[in-house]
């Protein structure tokens, strides 16, 4: 009883803890701009890792208590018994269990096969006929294969948190071996620790009894919040900062405004909306059924759950054909009385003494059958309405994002899924016609005003189109499912016309962006070429977290602006090399294989993530990783649900359990030790990560407070405290160095440079510090290092020229003509290099010169001053 209690309470705790964690992560992702900025995540990560630590500690306590109770019962000799464990494993009652007295009837097989009761259990013993045994054993073979398939899927799904932990280990290796950016590496380590724990919670939730419903609720809540908040920001006056991205360039936006939603970036927002749209489209298409006039099913695709049940039923029916006629009559006669009927009673029934009762029973059965069919039709209508309801907001948000990449990724993912299941073409045509047409109408209406709508008319327009799309979709779905012949062909033509009209309305507006040259695509080509060259310098392990962000100014071949490499795969390659990319690809392969085996309807949204992330920086958003990790867990939960509904009779597993019992007992102790060690390590890591997040949060908070202060003394104190909390932050070190004397400022910058060897701001500040000194050699060295980290910085090059000129003038005023001449010579050399680079860039044309790198007119005046200074120093030296 105590073991059952621990298992029961432990399962409830797992479900509750996983549900709260998943919901909290989704809510935080919506409020924190999709987890794009790590600085905004510090507070959340502190609480998240603390929660993980508490949950793992609680799991350790429950695990230890359960093991202690098992050991205690074993010492007392109670665990050696066979009857109670076998009945408990078989699903029977145990004294003290909630199931009550032992009397369990197996009705799963008869539900699937549509036959009479085959097996009746009384006190754990089965009273069966020969036909019943054969039928049940046949179903056991089918269902046993389903159970083994789910076990394989469960083994695969553990690759998700496992691969995330491998990536964490790679970032930890970089953190201790000196990365290009220590702060960026620790940020990525905290990120991937969060992804690993989230994947673990999702996998644990998928294994619970209500796991499918829980994961589905998290998914749909995320989708509706993200889509409706964006649409209300446009149509309903919801104050959502940066929900609309404005641009005057027709190459970026035809309408001049693009919907960005909570993510504040239209391309990523469009990709996320494509993910949710395809999930709902294929879910509705998978549930599409063709009905006859009476409401019976003529032919259906059915959902995955119904497909699994029908396969099990077919298997039982095949074995049920072997039952002899006499045995069927015996079972039927026993079933008519609800139990064991005497021989005399059977003869009376056979002789017709209860014909009136039989006729009455037949009438009641017919009425019950009609009521059941009506209830099924109502339930199916409700399910269809629920599937169609979110389609319009997802489609409208996707179109308003005006993301060509998201549109193409959605189309490619849908086409790939249709190649695997071509029979879904007609259901997709039906279910998506009305929502897509209404979304296109909303897009055309809002495009005329640049996504600027008055609140009341905008809300009325949004609500009217949504209601119209929903009702029209239900009507079309119902009519097509019941129509035949020419009527069905006409309705299909109507649906195809709606799709064509929607596509034409959108393409006529954006055809210039689609058919014309794309400067953004050309810019991505530059990013990718420069990134490949940079990745070749450290191909195996990369350079640590945020490599592109801290090195693109040094690696760029043209003066573009792009702190993101616009490819998730390249970003991982730069950070972790081939080792990290292999871990990510294994994670994606495991997710894809699991979704393909367990729930193919979830493949299209997964394809969208994989495709669009190759051409944009979606993986910089933590929200995208949450969706990617949620999909395979959800697929596993659906597979578990199907297996649970078609579970084999427990008697089939009794002998197998008895044979494996000694082996389980021999392996129990090593597994228990590994369980203790694993839970303890996880608990320690979560508490360590919580402390790191708290330190980074305190440092960031003190830095923001220092920026708002006007008193330099208070600023110095706050910045010093911030560095004590987080010494890896280069921004804090640069700000503090500007308030300190020369020597202290240089020492602080050099210490900070050891944490971030490639930081542009630190190099620039060191160059400025040495230019204010009196050694032209050191100044020239740091100026060149600064220019190597930021190649196309025209303002920095001009500042370096002025610094060299001022240093030479100071040296000449102090009487040191040699230093003045050296400063002038160094300045002229820097000016020569600047002029050559500017001339080369001018020959290439203005395209991709986003930083406006050119030779400033002030350079000519500086050149005359430098040559004059050089001549003065030389003349003074010759006169002397």
UniProtKB/TrEMBL annotation:
The chain crosses the membrane at residues 12-36, 42-65, 156-177, 189-207, 214-242, 262-282, 391-418, 424-443, 455-477, 489-510, 572-599, 619-637, 673-694. Residues 293-365 are annotated as: Disordered. The keyword Transmembrane applies. This is O-antigen ligase family protein. It holds the Pfam family Wzy_C. Its main location: membrane. Keywords: Ligase, Membrane, Transmembrane, Transmembrane helix. The keyword Cytoplasm does not apply. GO terms for molecular function: ligase activity. It is found in: Membrane. Residues 316-328 have a biased composition (Basic and acidic residues). It comes from the Bacteria. Residues 465-584 form the O-antigen ligase-related domain. It is a multi-pass membrane protein. The lineage of its organism: Bacteria, Bacillati, Bacillota, Bacilli, Bacillales.
């Amino acid at each position: 009883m105590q073991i059952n209690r621990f298992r029961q309470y432990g399962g409830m705790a797992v479900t509750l803890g996983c549900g709260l964690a998943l919901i909290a992560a989704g809510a935080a992702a919506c409020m924190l701009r999709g987890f794009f900025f790590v600085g905004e995540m510090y507070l959340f990560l502190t609480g998240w890792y603390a929660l993980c630590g508490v949950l793992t500690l609680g799991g350790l306590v429950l695990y230890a208590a359960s093991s202690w109770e098992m050991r205690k019962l074993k010492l007392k000799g109670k665990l050696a018994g066979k009857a109670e464990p076998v009945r408990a494993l078989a699903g029977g009652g145990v004294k003290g269990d909630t199931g009550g007295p032992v009397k369990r009837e197996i009705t799963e097989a008869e539900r699937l096969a549509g036959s009479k009761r085959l097996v009746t259990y009384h006190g754990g013993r089965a009273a069966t006929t020969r036909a019943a045994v054969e039928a049940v054993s046949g179903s056991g073979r089918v269902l046993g294969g389903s159970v083994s398939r789910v076990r394989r899927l469960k083994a695969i799904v553990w690759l998700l948190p496992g691969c995330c932990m491998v990536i964490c280990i790679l970032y930890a290796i970089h953190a201790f071996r000196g990365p290009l950016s220590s702060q960026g590496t620790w940020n990525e380590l905290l990120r991937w620790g969060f992804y690993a724990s989230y994947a673990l919670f999702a996998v644990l939730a998928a294994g619970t009894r209500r796991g499918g419903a829980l994961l589905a609720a998290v998914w749909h809540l995320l989708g509706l919040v993200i889509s409706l908040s964006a649409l209300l920001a446009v149509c309903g006056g919801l104050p959502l900062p940066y929900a609309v991205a404005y641009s005057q360039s027709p190459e970026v936006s035809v309408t001049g405004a693009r919907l960005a939603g909570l993510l504040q970036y239209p391309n990523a927002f469009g990709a996320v909306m494509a993910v949710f749209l395809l999930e709902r489209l294929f879910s509705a298409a998978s549930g599409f059924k063709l009905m006859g006039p009476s409401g019976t099913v003529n032919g259906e695709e059915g959902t995955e759950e119904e497909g699994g049940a029908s396969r099990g039923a077919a298997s039982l029916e095949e074995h049920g054909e072997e039952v002899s006629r006499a045995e069927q009559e015996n079972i039927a006669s026993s079933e008519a009385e609800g139990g064991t009927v005497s021989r005399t009673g059977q003869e009376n029934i056979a002789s017709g003494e209860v014909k009136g009762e039989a006729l009455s029973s037949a009438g009641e059965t017919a009425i019950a059958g009609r009521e059941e069919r009506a209830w099924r039709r109502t339930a199916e209508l409700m399910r269809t309405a629920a599937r169609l309801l979110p389609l319009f907001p997802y489609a409208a948000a996707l179109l308003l994002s005006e993301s060509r990449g998201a549109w193409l990724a959605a189309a490619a993912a849908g086409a790939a899924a249709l190649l695997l299941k071509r029979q879904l073409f007609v259901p997709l045509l039906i279910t998506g016609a009305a929502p897509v047409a209404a979304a296109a109408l909303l897009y055309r209406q809002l495009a005329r005003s640049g996504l600027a709508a008055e609140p009341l008319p905008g809300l009325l327009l949004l609500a009217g189109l949504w209601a119209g799309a929903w009702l029209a979709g239900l009507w079309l779905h119902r009519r097509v499912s019941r129509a035949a012949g020419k009527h069905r062909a006409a309705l299909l033509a109507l649906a195809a016309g709606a799709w064509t009209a929607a596509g034409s309305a959108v393409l006529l507006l954006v055809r210039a962006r689609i058919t014309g040259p794309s400067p953004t695509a050309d810019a991505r080509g530059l990013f990718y070429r420069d990134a490949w060259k940079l990745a070749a310098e450290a191909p195996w392990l990369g350079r640590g977290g945020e490599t592109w962000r801290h090195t693109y100014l040094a690696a760029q071949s043209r003066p573009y602006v792009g702190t993101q490499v616009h490819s998730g795969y390249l970003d991982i390659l730069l950070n972790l090399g081939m080792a990290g990319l292999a871990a990510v690809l294994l994670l994606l392969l495991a997710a894809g294989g699991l979704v393909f085996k367990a729930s193919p309807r979830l493949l299209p949204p997964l394809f969208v993530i994989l495709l669009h992330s190759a051409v944009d920086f979606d993986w910089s958003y933590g929200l995208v990783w949450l969706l990617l990790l949620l999909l395979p867990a959800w697929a596993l939960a659906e597979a578990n649900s199907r297996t649970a509904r078609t579970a084999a009779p427990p008697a089939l597993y009794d002998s197998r359990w008895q044979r494996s019992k000694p082996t389980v007992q021999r392996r129990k102790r090593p597994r228990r030790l590994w369980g203790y060690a694993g839970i303890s390590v996880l608990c320690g890591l979560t508490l360590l990560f919580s402390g790191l997040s708290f330190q980074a949060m305190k440092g960031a908070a003190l830095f923001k407070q220092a920026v708002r202060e006007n008193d330099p003394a208070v600023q110095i104190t706050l910045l010093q405290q911030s560095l004590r909390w987080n010494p890896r932050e280069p921004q804090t070190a640069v700000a503090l160095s500007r308030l300190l004397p020369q020597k202290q400022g240089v020492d602080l910058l050099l210490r900070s440079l050891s944490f971030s060897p490639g930081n542009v701001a630190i190099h620039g500040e060191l160059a400025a510090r040495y230019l204010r000194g009196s050694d032209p050699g050191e100044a020239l060295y740091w100026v060149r290092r600064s220019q190597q980290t930021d190649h196309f910085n025209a303002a920095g090059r001009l500042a370096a020229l002025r610094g060299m000129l001022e240093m030479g003038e100071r040296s000449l005023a102090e009487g040191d003509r040699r230093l003045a001449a050296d400063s002038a010579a160094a300045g002229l050399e820097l000016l020569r290099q600047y002029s050559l680079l500017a001339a080369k860039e001018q020959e290439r044309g203005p395209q991709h010169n986003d930083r406006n790198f050119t030779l400033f007119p002030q350079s000519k005046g500086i050149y005359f001053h430098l040559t004059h200074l050089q001549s003065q120093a030389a003349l003074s030296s010759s006169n002397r």
